[in-house]
Amino acid sequence: MSLNTDMPVRVAAVTQVTDLVKRFRFERLDGHPMPFFSGGAHVVVSMNDNGLLRRNPYSLMSNPDDNSAYEISVLRVPNSRGGSIFMHEQVRPGDQLTVSQPVNLFAPDHRGRKHILIAGGIGITPFIAMMEQFSRDNIAFELHYAIRSRSHGAYWQQLLDRYGPRRIKIYVDEEKTFIPVAEIADNQPLGTHLYVCGPAGMIDGVLMTGLKAGWPKENLHSERFLAPPAGLPFQVFLERSNIHMTVGEHQSILEAAEAHGCDAPYMCRGGACGQCETEVLSCDGTLQHNDIYLSDEEKASGKKVMICVSRFKGQQLVLQL
Amino acid sequence: MLVQGIKSRPEYKGLDIDPHAKRHLFVLEGEGAQALIDEVGAKGRDFLAKSEILYLAAGAAPKAYDVTLSALSPDVFWQASTLQPLLFRLRACLEQARMGTRLSIAGTEGFIGQIMQVAIEYGIDYHSIHTEHRGSMARRVQCVHCKGITDNVTTSPFPCSHCGLPLLVRDHYSRRLGAFQGVNIDAEEPGTAPEPEEMFP
Ligand code: FES
């Protein structure tokens, strides 16, 4: 949230995990302990990229019991908007960054009797913290983790060593082994919950397979952060702040508002949490809703917009912000 | 007299067969039998072959719903004489059940609440349970003072069957207890409780 509770941190360590994944360890500048978090939580990291403010959400992957520091892992995404490239190329030990308070939009359901975690690629990160918690609390879980190749996959060996092959199953694209989702969903005790984090296609496939196996939607959980999509620039007027602004090609409305000094609320910056919901006062054109939060009816009504990912095409959009 | 407009008041949205379910467990009481019979009328008989029915006739015994239910020839039809053996059997079913089994409950509110209480212990999310209220509107109410639970409450206020205080029934519902909350109505001036009003026939 944009309550002013962000924490200035120092980068305590940077570790190259694989070719494309780096791990960052953050300690508070004021020497205080980090707030405790729960497995599945993320923070938003603010970066100052040559005067350009970048804010990206990353899942916390350190041990939730360890409040001396936070750790995140970042996949280098070449054609991305630049946050991951900045983290990979610019950030060194000793540098200063700002991280938000932890927010959990992907918490395990503690009423569950067993937990199945399904990860694809960098989607492993929230589960690393979750598994620490499950194992501490003696809660039954198993991880099914798909990686491209053994050299590209992050943390699979450490996880196998720590939790053993009964709880950790690794599937490797290059070796033509794939997660048998239907079989997994087919034979689980009542009260099992399933969590999936990874590429969008994988998430959709797993959720669909679960529903087709007769699982109630309440037992199927996923986390996806959409990166704000690029698009043509457009004009927005923020009524309460009295700001006329242009939202650039690679900018979200939220980012443009922040660049103009308007402190809008947010949590996930990925169209999932609902925190940035903003009222549309007038709209001379069409809203392009890119979030997964609003219902289809709400999107059709045109009265609200999630400003972290959605765009606009037309003359002028007026928002109550 | 009743305190309404409290969010925890449960909603019973009606039975609804999940076409993907691998198995159905129907736990029915009294007039709740008719909810399933109606559902078969609406959706056809296909799901019966993978259905288990646990039935408690209770006050509806003269209507012989058990005959109608077993004539539907579900995979398993089992009838209990009282609630306790039904709960015992329910636990055994849930212990064995796999994901893909969907639970449906129909009957009076007190019955639905007590079945849900057990289901929740087995990690079932209450949103995923299909429920239908049939039969009497009588409520199961816990006295917030002595903690005793009174079944089949039809009036408000009513005298607590444990401590005797006149209790006002509130829409405030506890899923953990499977009961509404009853609060002493004349605490300031004992003896001034209004006459009981028939609220839940
Ligand atoms: S900040 Fe979460 S939906 Fe926009």
TrEMBL record, chain A:
The protein's UniProt keywords, in alphabetical order, are: 2Fe-2S, Flavoprotein, FMN, Iron, Iron-sulfur, Metal-binding, Oxidoreductase
- Taken from the record, one Pfam family name reads Fer2
Domain 2Fe-2S ferredoxin-type: where?
234-321
A molecular-function term among this protein's GO annotations? 2 iron, 2 sulfur cluster binding
Q: Which residues form the FAD-binding FR-type domain?
A: 4-109
Q: What Gene3D superfamilies would the database entry show?
A: 3.10.20.30, Nucleotide-binding domain of ferredoxin-NADP reductase (FNR) module (3.40.50.80), Translation factors (2.40.30.10)
The keyword Nucleotide-binding is assigned to this record: no
Chain segments annotated as transmembrane: none
Q: Which PANTHER family is this protein grouped with?
A: CARNITINE MONOOXYGENASE REDUCTASE SUBUNIT, NADH OXIDOREDUCTASE HCR
- Protein name as it appears in the record: 2Fe-2S iron-sulfur cluster binding domain-containing protein
Q: What is the species of this protein?
A: Shinella kummerowiae
From TrEMBL, chain B:
Coiled-coil parts of chain: none
Report whether Transmembrane shows up as a keyword of the record: no
- Print the keywords alphabetically: 2Fe-2S, Flavoprotein, Iron, Iron-sulfur, Metal-binding, Oxidoreductase
Output the Gene Ontology terms for molecular function: 2 iron, 2 sulfur cluster binding; metal ion binding; oxidoreductase activity
- Offer one Pfam family short name for this entry: DmmA-like_C
Where's the Dimethylamine monooxygenase subunit DmmA-like N-terminal domain?
5-129
> Which top-rank group of organisms is this from?
Bacteria
Keyword Acetylation listed? The answer is: no
The secretion signal range is none
Limits of the Dimethylamine monooxygenase subunit DmmA-like C-terminal domain? 140-183
Protein name as catalogued:
Uncharacterized protein
Q: Which organism is it from?
A: Shinella kummerowiae
Taxonomically, what lineage is the organism? Bacteria, Pseudomonadati, Pseudomonadota, Alphaproteobacteria, Hyphomicrobiales
